[in-house]
Amino acid sequence: MSVRTVLATALRLSWLVLIALVVSEFFTDLPGPGWVTTLLPAGVVLVLMVAVMTLQARAAAPRGEPRDPVEVAPPVTGRWTALNSPADKVPSHGTHIYGQTYAIDIVAEREEGGGEASARPRFRWLWPLFRRNRVFPAFGAPLLAVADATVVRASDGQRDHLSRNSLPALAYLMLIEGNVRSIVGAHRVIGNHVILDLGDGTYAVYAHAQRGSLRVKAGDTVRAGQPIARCGNSGNTTEPHLHFHLMDGPDLDAARGVPFTWRGLELPANGETFTVADRAEGV
To answer: Judging by beta carbons within 10 Å of its beta carbon (0-12, 13-18, 19+), is residue 74 exposed, middle or buried?
Structure first.
């Protein structure tokens, strides 16, 4: 077991201890002042959690000389917009954990000329609190293999929740739901997902896939351009989108990120809209 895996496990156990201490304050009457029986131990656990998170982030950071970017095909076709792109900053999501140093999020857009009524719903401060997935053009969009590869993990069955793109819903995601998912494990953070072994120590992650849409299973071989799943809204998400990144191992808790480029397309920056033409399978 790697140091990074041990740290990830320690952080989840720390969360459970902290929750147990808080719950015990309401349901038990421990002897002594509350600051001794609950607040002091909780404070110690919080300090340890901060230390573990710091060590976890450092352990997951790339080491040595940076790897050359791996060229792969884009994982989608159609019109999309990039968010949290490594073209702007690294780590793109503000963290190295889960091997996502060079990760990118992309959301689908309606084809040009569709009018304002058909545009992708934008963030709202208060209302509506949430939206159903079918109003987002990314929901159900095909996800394609970026190279000839072997499927090493294909996880399905998590629900596609409602959007979290209003201020109250986002606060709920950041303060409650996201932390609960982190405690349970990486698989709950990335939702339904596929991990491909591209060879040469490189693995591709497709996160937040639509429940029931996976067309592959562990052990399958796929060709570049082959549909492997559909875009969904499972896991730690605000709206239907694809989270894609490369890493140097199949274990999200132990892997480090690998930089990449998309064949025939400059890696888009945050907020940049791009179009990928349809391509034949195997291209």
So the answer is: buried
DSSP secondary structure code for residue 249 in this structure: S
Q: What is the pLDDT along the chain (283 residues), one digit of tens a residue?
A: 556 666 666 666 666 665 666 666 556 655 555 544 556 666 666 666 666 666 656 666 777 777 889 999 999 999 999 999 999 999 998 888 889 999 999 999 986 655 444 577 788 888 888 888 999 999 999 999 999 999 999 999 999 998 888 888 888 777 778 777 877 778 888 999 999 999 999 999 999 999 999 999 999 999 999 999 999 999 989 899 999 999 999 999 889 999 999 999 999 999 999 999 886 555 5
Q: Which residue has the tokens 């072997």?
A: 150
Residue with tokens 């909780």, as numbered in its chain: 42
Secondary structure class of 58 (helix, strand, coil): helix
How many residues make up the chain in this entry?
Answer: 283
Say which residue the tokens 């857009």 belong to: 109
CATH classification of 70-276 is 1.10.530.10, yes or no?
no
Token pair recorded at residue 187: 């698989």
Q: How far is CA 162 from CA 11, 59, 123, 231, 236, in A?
A: 28, 34, 14, 14, 11
Question: Model-level pTM?
Answer: 0.82
For residue 122, give the DSSP letter: P
